[in-house]
Design a protein that fits this description.
Keywords: Ribonucleoprotein, Ribosomal protein, RNA-binding, rRNA-binding. The chain has a single domain, classed as Ubiquitin-like (UB roll) (Roll), CATH 3.10.20. 28% of the residues lie in helices and 51% in strands. The chain has a three-stranded antiparallel sheet, covered by helices on one side. By secondary structure, the protein is α+β, with helices and mostly antiparallel strands.
Length: 57
C-alpha cells in the first residue's frame, strides 16, 4: 500500500473548510473512496458535501 495525501474542502455548518489527510491505499481511486467514506461516517456528510481537489503520492 502507498500513502496518499488527499486535499480539498468539506461543507461545515459555517461554510466550507479545507482539509488535508494522509490515506493508505492501493491507488488514487481507492484513496478518494476512503476519504468520502471517512467524512460520511465521522461527519454524516454526503459525497456532494465533500470536494476533493488533489490526490498526491
Amino acid at each position: 500500500m502507498t500513502e496518499f495525501t488527499v486535499s480539498g474542502r468539506w461543507q461545515a455548518r459555517d461554510g466550507w473548510e479545507s482539509f488535508e489527510k494522509e490515506i493508505q491505499a492501493e491507488n488514487e481511486d481507492v484513496a478518494t473512496e476512503r476519504t468520502y467514506t471517512e467524512f460520511g461516517s465521522k461527519h454524516g456528510l454526503k459525497r456532494t458535501q465533500v470536494e476533493i481537489e488533489e490526490v498526491a503520492q
